[in-house]
Amino acid sequence: MKCIINGKIVLENQILENKVLVFDETILDITDKVPQECQVIDAKGNYVCPGLIDIHIHGNMGRDVMNGDEESIFTISKSISRHGVTSFLPTTMTMDEESIKKALDTIKYLMNKDIEGARVLGAHLEGPFINVDYKGAQNPKFIVSPSYNLIEEYKDVIKVITYAPETDSNFEFTKKIRRNTNIVLSIGHSRAKFEEAKGAINLGANNITHMFNGMSGLNHRDPGVVGAALTTDVFCEVIADEIHILKDLFKFILKNKGEDKIILITDSIEAGGLEPGEYSLGGQKVIVKDNQARLESGSLAGSVMPLNKMVYNFMNNTDLDIRRVIKLASINPAKSLNIDDKKGSLEIGKDADIAIFDKDINCYMTISDGKVIYKK
């Protein structure tokens, strides 16, 4: 049994001071005194927060999910734990079917395994069911129409599918996914018209992939995917690196979506955590310069910023305090994946996924399922 003292404990609706957080694999109690025979962790006045959940990440520290090997997932898992991330969805790219299945097989094997870093919750399948006109950094050579057959054997591994609903004939794929699986459908890399996007949402698509990026924009006569995102009750991923979206729009997004429907993600690639230079994404050359990752064509190719810095950026450019902004990378992604009964907040009985941050969201310790996986 362990406990954390001298911390500001960040709950969903309040911050507690002068309390002790007691845990083993799950959170056992929030009390006034240190229990007997308890290993004590001193938070030294910092914030004790729920661990962060990244539902959209392709790579880190020179490793890519599409390498399809365990070592790549291990490296990503351990690396992102340095930033307070306690669980994540390794995210695939639009590549050939063999490569996608190889990556999914590895993710399946490692799902919920006790590894050194952040826990693998399952996979986010980004592509190949997207629109070539909004492919972004995805390879157009491998784009195909939505096919249930491709994902059927992985329906318990895949937790999110990014797709373009306008390529789904009569929404048959959408209906079949909703009827036969618990997979979250997320609209992205899509040129859907407003009514097409609304149609998919009405049938159960409940996420938007990296909102504003890789989708039909907001127009007064055809509001597109962005309009559908802003006028319905879907969760919206946001890359808050101040590059993918102008920081002045953070308040606009917050005002229109509310803090309960925004999910901060990294969309990190293998260059995350490394120096500027040349890297790869989905078999394509990526050039990283000035904290931006771009294909040779100039298209943005994911990000290189860690999730805690995304959280800080969003806090720094809105009126959210640390309690409210942490939700955007903890309980909100947990709710979107329907795992908020176990993860996403510091409630008694939930998994002991904990991150200790200072006021600028710098990470001092990360705890996953009660085990310290990073200490500064």
From TrEMBL:
Residues annotated for Zn(2+) binding in this entry: E126, H189, H210
Biological process annotations from GO: N-acetylglucosamine catabolic process
Taxonomy, superkingdom: Bacteria
Residues of the Amidohydrolase-related domain: 47-372
EC number: 3.5.1.25
GO molecular function, one term: metal ion binding
Textual note on the cofactor: Binds 1 divalent metal cation per subunit.
Annotated catalysed reactions: N-acetyl-D-glucosamine 6-phosphate + H2O = D-glucosamine 6-phosphate + acetate
This protein's name: N-acetylglucosamine-6-phosphate deacetylase
Entry keywords, A to Z: Carbohydrate metabolism, Hydrolase, Metal-binding
Required co-factors: a divalent metal cation
Record: residues binding substrate: A137, N213, G214, R221, H244, L300, A301, G302
Active site: D267 (proton donor/acceptor)
Residue spans crossing the bilayer: none
Pathway(s) it belongs to: Amino-sugar metabolism; N-acetylneuraminate degradation; D-fructose 6-phosphate from N-acetylneuraminate: step 4/5
Assigned protein family: Belongs to the metallo-dependent hydrolases superfamily. NagA family.
Species of the source: Romboutsia lituseburensis DSM 797
UniProt entry tagged with the keyword Metal-binding: yes
InterPro entries given in the database record: Amidohydro-rel (IPR006680), GlcNAc_6-P_deAcase (IPR003764), Metal-dep_hydrolase_composite (IPR011059), Metal_Hydrolase (IPR032466)
